Fold this protein.
Amino acid sequence: MIVGGFLLLEAAPGDAVDAYVASLGGDAGLVRELRERWGLDRSAPTRFLLYLAGLATGDLGRSLAFDRPVLAIVLERLPITLALAGSATLLAFALGSGLGILAGARPGGPLDRLLSAAALLLNAMPSFWLGLLLALLFAVRLRWLPLAGIETIGAGYSGLARLFDIARHLVLPVLTLGLVYAALYLRLMRAGMVEAWRSDFVRAARAKGIPRRRLLLRHVARNALLPVVTMLGLQSATLVGGSVVVESVFAVPGIGRLAAEAVTQRDFPLLLGILIVSALLVLLVNLLVDLLYARIDPRVELGARAR
């Protein structure tokens, strides 16, 4: 991943000096001085070996645009992205699974058709466009929620008041990111329940006289939940990547917006650091999903014991 990221960044046109000169201007002497100061006058293999040597000691390098350690900048923005992506994931999983159960309870019924059509519409809608619509409705027209940022500047809130202010600012980004993925989970849950209704164990449970509600929740929905949990792990990387657009639309100072700034300013050390931290987050989320999968499906744990 590190090698691939470095090669892709090297193949991209321009560097941090070009971005600096394009925005602020400068002569040939300044360009030469900046390249020497930032180490961009060295060859690509040399810079890559120096980067690996620093990475071995836990040093992600120094940001060229911010003139600060990359790790310190990423750790400042990381909690905001975790709060945004984590809240959006919980919303998408809970809302999508719950509506999927309602849709799959009676496949082909009016509620199933209505929810399936709504899910298809949301799934086809770009996240930035949905975010603009929500902002226009709740921030501009109704003025219920703040339009952008992470907290009210100059308000001087502290304690619970500050947490409430941050939560209000996160409502629109969380809704934008969560609703798009909730539509995907709804469709997966509904499809899994349709397949589960046709299974032999459901027919056997019906023959035993198990009440429909218990059959729906404990047998059909629980088995249909397995592919949804699997997709939850696969979508973790997409959630981190999707936050780039949402954070840019709502001016949320998270890792996604930081990555967009790093690309604009050709800050390769910062962008590589963001890629490494994001990859570690994806691995952690997939580990947690595997543990949750074993909790939902006892056959996973039994299979491990059998070996």
